[in-house]
Fold this protein.
Amino acid sequence: MSRSPQKRSSGCGCLSVSAFAVLVIVLFAVGMSVFGGAVSLPFSSKEPVPADVPPAAAEPAPVVDLIAGDRPSEQLIEWSEQISSDTRIDPQAVRAYGIAERWAAENFPTCNLSWNTLAGLGFVESRHGTYNGDWLNRSHLDENGVAEPRIIGIALDGSPGFAEIRDTDNGVLDGDTEYDRAVGPMQFIPSTWNQYVVDIRGTGAPDPQQIDDAAASAANLLCFGGRDLATEAGWTEAIRAYNQSDEYVADVRDAAANYALNQSA
C-alpha cells in the first residue's frame, strides 16, 4: 500500500489583498475537489476530532445476509444514503465498508473492526476510489463499484521514499512485469492482495479494483492474526500493517474520527 501525495497551487500576487484572499480560497477548494479530498474552509462547521486511538467507532452497519444476491452490499443502500450525504463518500464505497464490517464481525468476532476505520484507509489511499495521480482524468466507481480508470500506483523500484518490490504477479494485476505496484481503491500490492483476498461478491474472480472486494480484503488484513481493533495497540498494529509511517497512522485516525462524527474528512 502506498500513499498518494497532494499538491497545492499558488496565486500570482497581482491582486488586492482581499481579492487575492478570495481567489486563494476558491483555487484551493477547486484543487482539493480535483483530488477528491474534503475542504476545510475558515467558515467550516465541522467538529474538531479527538486524537484518541483507536478513533471512536461509527454506528455499525445493519446485519445482512453475506451471501444474498450478486452483490450483498446492495442490502445497505438505504443505510448508506444519509451517511454518504453527510460524509461526502461515494455511496458505493460506504456500502463496501459496511459489508466489510459485517464480514469481519462474522469471521473475526473479536476484531471489533468498524466501517469508519476502513473508510479512513480508503480516504488516505485513494479518496475512496477517486484519486489516481491524474488531475485531469480522475477515477470514479462505475455502476459495478469498479474504479475507472483503474488505479495503479507507481513502480516500487526502490526510488527515494519507496521500497523495492520485484514483480510477484507477472503483471496480471498491475501491468508491470518488472516491479510491483499498488492497485485499486485500497491500494493492495499484488502479493498482499493474493494473501488476504476476499471474494465478498462470490464471483469466483475477486478484483482489487472493485470496492466491495477491496474493502473486505482490507478487513481481512486488518483483523488477521487475532488483532483487537478496540484497543490502542491492536488498532495501531493493524494500520501499520498497511503502512509503517506514524503520519499515515495519524491521517487514517483523523479521517476515521471525522466519519464517526458523520462529517467529511
